[in-house]
């Protein structure tokens, strides 16, 4: 049949209760009484509003959107785990829905027993599982562990076991929700390769992920959901482009909120434009923009990367309305060879943050390597200090 | 590329309507039989891996009932066993009751205990209660082994009329599955029913002729009783065909059969109707 692999969702709506989690008889009786009296009984929130999607056999569609935008709900409706409030859903062919796939693994059973259980949950017959058993174990790289109880498996092993069963399904339609989040990089690559093999065989794919790179690599079309509505739909590059600029806009908006002082420029260099060397000068210079003249405390941190600096340099000073250049010079930089990061913050006299503590730029230092102390000695500050030694017999 | 905002609510004609076709549902359930098999295997393996006594637990509950009835119940009431040793008489009632009670408990709570699967994997939802009923049934088969020992000890043999027992088993299965499906579907929506369930089952063992015979129920009420509690005439039937060499008492068994069939069909339809919301509510 030529339509095998077709996915069609027409004007799907879905709502959830917002009022409470409890499901007790007395709550129901209460709400029934309220409804009989004509009072409003409980609120609803739309999780999906008028979402349509048609995927031709062999096509791959990626669904993106921020958390709570309805991606997973939509995939659950496609896989018939839950039902829509309104609209129609039609899938033709064998469907494999991979949604939080570790849920199918029972901790008290061995890996072998779980392969059979999960296989039949996904719709394989026991004979089919038996025929594929060796492939499944080999793909999951579990070896002898297959006869151990899965509660003694690491989460990565459980994940590998579940994905391997799912990967052996040979479906017409593959619905995938963020399953590759667990597992090491090598196994993720393997899963990715397996999905690409399936795509090559003409499987229809609907893929939900926050990993935009893999959406772009696997899918030809994109669907961007925003608060349960279709924000845009079309070729994957266009949709992802629109989505990316949307989330960067969100991030910038959240960063500039509360920053009364802006960091306009930053420069870090050795003396007179020379390269940065151990025990030589280092010059940090930034341009701050302020909406008013104020007295502030400017603070720089030099770090190996994280927000915990090795060195803190700070100074109270007055900045003007508009741009102010602030420069700071270290005569003899005590850092050995390596890459370091400049962090910065600006606070006012009451210690209110005017510019949030944030990484500004990075720089490389040329010079001697850090010398290694004898084992068992933990060095707190990985700095390089010049010293002279003498030793005489007395 | 950006679309106009959708309306505030879907048009009425778009509303999703669940069509229930019993034949389609039954066919789909039949296709899921291997899944039921796997679930039963999972339940039994998980259950017996954790228990020190293992399979012996399947025997402990009915044996304990039988001992309690033999030691205490007979002190306060005289039971006409028609010459059959009382332990054997009561055990023939205890085994079907234990099956019913454990099937309803396991199957009835199965949607809650499988909530994680319910939310992530598609399958006909009734596989979970059915797997509960079947694993209770397997425990019952183990308990039947003890029945053989009791026969040997008391020097009584099952009567030839025992060939009629499968008919009673079918009636009991229909009733048990019906009640299990109903409980399973309702407990999802009304969580506190599960406490009521254990209470009802505790009274049920006394309200059913397990420790005594059906003749305790006044004759003119027996038809009504059979409609309300089909287990009564069924257990009475087991005793008649297996122990007494009689045929079942048709005029009380007929209403029980009728009630069981109504339960089964009604519960299946109810379950299929409520199924739509399970994944959202569980």
Question: How do the helices and strands line up, and which of them pair or pack?
Answer:
The complex is a heterodimer of chains A (394) and B (282).
Chain A: E1 7-17, H1 25-36, E2 44-55, E3 60-64, H2 71-78, E4 86-91, E5 95-99, H3 111-121, H4 126-140, H5 155-167, E6 173-177, H6 185-200, E7 204-208, H7 212-218, E8 221-226, E9 229-235, H8 236-256, E10 261-270, E11 282-290, E12 294-303, E13 311-319, E14 322-330, E15 338-348, E16 353-365
Parallel strand pairs in A: 3-7, 3-8, 5-6, 6-7
Antiparallel strand pairs in A: 1-2, 1-4, 8-9, 10-11, 11-14, 12-13, 12-15, 15-16
Helix pairs in contact in A: 3-4, 3-5, 4-5
Chain B: H1 22-31, H2 33-50, H3 57-76, H4 86-108, H5 110-113, H6 115-118, H7 127-154, H8 165-189, H9 193-207, H10 222-228, H11 231-244, H12 250-281
Helix pairs in contact in B: 2-7, 3-4, 3-7, 4-7, 4-8, 4-9, 4-11, 8-11, 8-12, 10-12
Explain what this protein looks like in three dimensions:
The complex is a heterodimer of chains A (394) and B (282). In chain A, 26% of the residues lie in helices and 34% in strands. Chain A has 394 residues and is of the alpha/beta class. Chain A has 2 domains: 51-253, P-loop containing nucleotide triphosphate hydrolases (Rossmann fold, 3-Layer(aba) Sandwich), CATH 3.40.50; 261-365, Distorted Sandwich (Coagulation Factor XIII, Chain A, domain 1). In chain A, helix 4 crosses helix 5 (155-167). The mean pLDDT of chain A is 82. Chain B is mainly α. Chain B has one domain (33-281). Helix content of chain B is 71%, strand content 0%. In chain B, helix 8 (165-189) runs antiparallel to helix 11 (231-244). Chains A and B meet through strand 1, helix 1, strand 4, strand 5 and helix 3 of A and helix 2, helix 6 and helix 12 of B.
